[in-house]
Amino acid sequence: MASDEIKKDIKDDNLDNENIEEKTETNETEDSTKTAEKEKNENTNDKEYDELKDKFIRLQADFTNFKRRTEEEKKNYIELGVKKVVNNLLPVIDNFERAMDSVEEKDKTYDGIKMIKDQLTEVLAKEGIVEMKALGEEFDPTYHHAVLTEDSDEYDSGVVIEVLQKGYLIEDKTLRPAMVKVSQ
User: Fold this and answer.
1) Residue from 120, 138, 142, 134 nearest 164 by CA
2) Disordered: where is this region (predicted)?
3) Which of 7, 71, 86, 136 has the greatest number of CB atoms lying within 10 Å of its CB?
4) Can you tell me the mean pLDDT for 88-94?
5) Helix (H) or strand (E) holding 175
6) How many Å is the maximal CA-CA distance in the chain?
């Protein structure tokens, strides 16, 4: 009987070993499935992270470009406004100069006109708007508007010999070209 019990115990042990092996195989399969799913989730998360990161970088670049464009547009609008106002003031300065030229006696009226004209030109100079030098300069179509030409023994050909209307620069750019007479 003892051998029957031993045989039974061995049989039970074999069954237990088979069950353990089956459970181990099942656990290994489950573990590998879980690992595969985990890797798949990690890959999906990495892809989603990369996509979100890319979108964020693009959005940040778009915002930076938008900010730069709006600042540039604002600057252009301000420059345009300044140019319009100054272009409307330049004829006033021209008229002050004509008034000064027409005065025969340099009296207090002349001094008052000169003071106002000087004050206007000083205000414009503070904003970077200055009178351009044209008389005796080589004719340059970017700065001068030739209205007349004249033969001259005194000047070489292509030189400004008379300024009919002063020109003005705004920060080294032509605001109003000078109307000039040029030698031939």
Assistant:
1) 134
2) 1-51
3) 86
4) 93
5) strand 173-176
6) 153
Structure confidence at residue 38 (pLDDT): 73
Query: Which is more confident, 113 or 27?
Result: 113
pLDDT digits (tens, 9 = 90+) for 122-161: 999 998 999 999 998 999 999 999 999 998 888 888 999 9
CB 167 within 8 A of CB 176: yes
At 81, list the tokens. 């406004």
Q: Helix %, strand %, coil % for the chain, to 5?
A: 65, 15, 20
**CA quadruple 19, 20, 23, 29: dihedral sign:** negative
Q: Is 106 helix (H, G, I), strand (E, B) or coil?
A: coil
Residue 102 main-chain phi, psi, to 5 deg: -80, -15
Query: What is the Cα–Cα distance from 55 to 10, expressed in whole angstroms?
Result: 66
Poorest-pLDDT segment among 20-29, 42-51, 75-84: 20-29
Residues 6+ apart with CB under 8 A from 148: 162, 164, 181, 182
**182 close to 162: Cβ distance less than 8 angstroms:** no
Torsions phi, psi of 40, nearest 5?
-65, -45
